[in-house]
Amino acid sequence: MPVTDITKDLDARTLTITAHFAAPVERVWGLYADPRQLERVWGPPTYPATFVDHDLSVGSRCTYYMASPEGERYGGWWRITGVDEPHRLTFDDGFATGDLEDAPGMPVSHNVYAFEADGEGTRATYVSQFDSAEDLQKVLDMGVEEGSRSAIDQIDAALVA
């Protein structure tokens, strides 16, 4: 299991996930840079993702939706705020409407994904910060901790495929 730690801090409004992958940093980065590979791990196994737009350039907007086992679609978006390939990606992540526009009133997280060499593998640190403790609590109540763990735990298998 790649996830080694999950820390929630309501005072700092952060959710931090640490994971270790049995692949070099460049390979892990490649998974996030390729939307077809990312679709295999973005979201829990029962909610596969489809990226409609994907461009890891600063200022770009990526859009995606996840499909439930019943066929319902849940949209989301990223706004890329920083790229230091292959070590660091920063972006805002939010909920989207059915036509992949920003969903008003829903939490937006400000994310820092950092990848560093660790032995023969990669240590990944995913930090999501929310605008308020209420926003963080809202996504925790929606199951983001369990969903993120199950999504990230798929990455090692995707890296060797």
Automatic annotation (TrEMBL):
InterPro entries assigned to the protein according to its UniProt record, in alphabetical order: ASHA1/2-like_C (IPR013538), START-like_dom_sf (IPR023393)
CDD domains for the chain: SRPBCC_CalC_Aha1-like (cd07814)
Pfam families recorded: AHSA1
Sequence ranges assigned to domain Activator of Hsp90 ATPase homologue 1/2-like C-terminal in this UniProt record: 22-159
Gene3D superfamilies (UniProt xref): 3.30.530.20
Family from the record: Belongs to the AHA1 family.
Protein name, per record: Uncharacterized protein YndB with AHSA1/START domain
Organism: Lapillicoccus jejuensis
Lineage: Bacteria, Bacillati, Actinomycetota, Actinomycetes, Micrococcales
